[in-house]
Amino acid sequence: MILPTATYRIQFRNGMTFDHAAALVPYLKKLGISHLYASPVFTATRDSTHGYDVTHATQIDPSLGGRAGFERMVQALKSAGLGLILDIVPNHMAASLENPWWRDVIAHGEHSRYAHYFDIDWSRPLTLPFLGDTFAEALEKGEISVRADPHSGLPTLAYFDNFYPLALDSWQGLNLEDKVDIAALHERQAYRLICWRDAATDLSYRRFFEITGLVGVRVEDPEVFAATHQLILALVHSGAVAGLRIDHVDGLADPQGYLERLRQQAGPDCYITVEKILGAEEALAADWPVAGTTGYEFITALADALVVSDGIKALRQAYPARNDMAAELRAAKALMVDRNFAGEFNRLLALAKDIAQDAFAENALRNALRELLLAFPVYRTYATAEGLPAADEALLQTVTANIGAETSPEALSFITGLFHGEAADNQTALFRTRFQQLSGPLMAKSVEDTLFFRQCTALALNEVGGEPLPQGFTLARFHAAMQTRQQQQPQGLSSTSTHDTKRGEDTRARLYTLSEAPERWSAAVTRWRQMHQAHIKPLPAGPAPGPAVEWMMYQALAGAWPVSLKLDDAAGLQDLETRFVAFVEKALREAKQRTDWAESNESYEEAVLAYARQLLSPASLVFLQDFTATLQPFIHAGLANSLSQTIIKLLAPGVPDIYQGSEALNFSLVDPDNRQPVDFALLEQWLHSPSSQPDSWLSGQLKQQTIATLLPLRQQHPALFRDGDYLPLTASSDHLIAFARVHPQATLIVVVPRLPLTAFAGNLPQPLPTWQIALPESLAHRRYYNVISHKEEALADVLIGAQPYLVLLSS
């Protein structure tokens, strides 16, 4: 296996094609990248912006350049000595008429040759929740009619521009212009068109999270695996693809079984990582045949190194809303169980009832099942028909021990007993699978997409993979996490930005610094709220925006503010306003408190968005002057944090992954803001020109050139970064993070600053007071090459310096 030394994530679509990516290969080579890491490239729905809504699993998307364009890109990569990693989506496909397999299922029901490809409950008609009203209401309004399919010419049930196929001869004997007969025709189909609002309670197929446009795929079936992976495996075997990234592995019925089949058929040389969110004490299963995860836990670990724990506590005390995270987490989970995933929960309950055969009252079973889901601290367990792994047995015991006495112990024991031992029947095995396929989406939507938009004390911590409950932050814990990373998944990806992260890495790096000056930040928010008090609109349910939403908005705006934006730049302010208002609207709806995606509260949203807009209007000049003046030291400190986290990512255990454009500065907010076009022409120009201080700090060029300086070390010393130990070093200053990578062939010492707002008094990094690092015997009495200054240095048993960034190599 040729392991990556560094990956570069490209988001195809939105103007990025295979030919455009091929043209970037010389730039990526010069940056020090070993593998291009591509978002899904298979044919997706028309106008897809991300590619996870695959319609043709055996076809490369013509809109990206098709197979010919793909081959040109592969050849460009190979000519430069670079590899290709593909992001693949085994869990779901598009529930779209553009998907020929899905369309065939709609037409033929469970008699379709593809009926078993999708995770559908065939005990009732297939529900298609894509109407704006009920079928009867849509029919009465004339929105549904019988029209010829534009392609086949056959009769269809037409809803605007969607043409739902009809079973052959099902229209015989009916007046296709009569609404009563059209309703009868609808009843003759294997499917039912229903309102999108009914999806949460009446869906007959497994979906991806809450997205009804993505239908679950049964890759646990060998035939389905073969069909959906035919092209993927062909590309691997041809040598075009060197690695695979598995999207949402926890959504699969049997993740380990899937990965073992994939490994067997892809071969031992294929680099495989999985998108998997690990809980605080959770480890990636040692027997999964993968290199590691895609690196969300690396982001979580960085907070330990770059956050002041007492400062977070002070921010929580100043936060103008309830701060009981445990209660808020339970409330968010309860909302998901009782509303958003009510259909999935009720089907799971029905399975339990069938297995119990009236041994328990329904309410007792319902309560036990509900409480178990609410108490679950990780995404899922990994029970199969053969039983539960030992680690999951222990987890289940811990979870059940903490469930309150008001839950029937007998019913709870029955529910948990379904996980133990070999499944005695198909229903028990199905219960295990369905529970595990629900607990993951439930956790994700409760934490990342609800709680983290409700509780906004410190937005930098509200990240994918972040811990929902309060915790302390220590440098010692960061070092421990890196040592664990080296032991458990040294070849997993280390990410700081992805297409799924809630904030760009530099937004997060800046917001970390608020923990260094919580009183200053809190006072500023109080001042700004007073300035804008006249723009708060009183509504029956309370002020719009309320204090907690104001706090969230000021923090989000502080994180996203472009470094070089001036107050007389009308176009720049307008661009920021557009992005900021879109973020605020999404944040309000994700919080699901006074508005929602399902039932939007227009008067509330209009009031809050008007408040957001006026923050950036010319009429708010006094505020903007105060805001930008207050922000300046945080901006400078954030740039220092950015470089620290970048150097750590490049040199700590794991394979550094760079998200497109993030080699410079990424001040993005939640998606789709993080999929903005990248100015690659400017980035290439920077890489070929010398940097100048301090402009290179402010533009991001210094960050880019640091990456280009350090990444070659990974190619020159692969054993050091693959197998080298991670050794924490103790510095005399609390403002330093120091560690070594140690291997018989080479040794690396790394020193970077932390807590830069106080270390550098809010200015760009400068020499620190002289610091010392005691060196263990294995590192002492050697000559080192300073990779940053390009000078030779001889070290005794103490490293003494004042520079904030130091990388020393001995080989």
The averaged pLDDT comes out at 96
Tally of extended strands?
Answer: 28
Largest sheet composition:
8 strands, parallel
Shape call: globular
Looking across the biggest beta sheet, what order are the strands in? 16-15-14-5-2-1-20-17
Computed CA radius of gyration, to the nearest angstrom: 28 Å
Unreliable parts: none
The helix content, as a percent range, equals 40-55%
Number of helices: 29
Q: From the helix content, strand content and strand pairing, which structural class follows?
A: alpha/beta
Beta-strand residue fraction: 15-25%
Q: Tell me the distance between the termini.
A: 25 Å
Brief characterization of the structure:
The protein is of the alpha/beta class. 44% of the residues lie in helices and 16% in strands. It has 29 helices and 28 strands.
What does this structure look like?
There is one protein chain. With 811 residues, the chain is of the alpha/beta class. It contains 29 helices and 28 strands. It has an eight-stranded parallel sheet with strand order 16-15-14-5-2-1-20-17. Strands 21-22-23-28-25-26 form a six-stranded antiparallel sheet. It has a three-stranded antiparallel sheet with strand order 6-13-12, with no helix packed on it. The longest helix has 31 residues, at 621-651. The radius of gyration is 28 Å and the shape is globular. The mean pLDDT is 96.
Features:
single chain; 811 residues; alpha/beta; 8-stranded parallel sheet; 6-stranded antiparallel sheet; 44% helix
